[in-house]
Task: structure prediction
Amino acid sequence: MKKTESNLKLEDLLKEKLSFKEYKNLKQKMDLSQNRLTRILRAPALARFDEIKKLASIIKISALDLVNKYDCGKKVITVSEMQQLTMF
Result:
């Protein structure tokens, strides 16, 4: 069965959207430590507002989609930050 966007994990989405080289250089592009990137990939709900925005721009997807479809930031972003994402 082919995976649809709604049932992909965040890591699968990144591998689909980025080339191998882009994926390997993601921590530099996002200005994160390897440890922080690994934490985001394992638990997207802990991604911070600024990390969600950066990631969205890198993979050219709506930051709101990252929150709604992939649960990015759901445990840590505020209502105000969520409202800001709806403006992008």
In short: The first helix runs from residue 10 to 17. The chain has one domain: 9-85. Residues 9-85 form one domain. Confidence is low (pLDDT under 50) at residues 1-7.
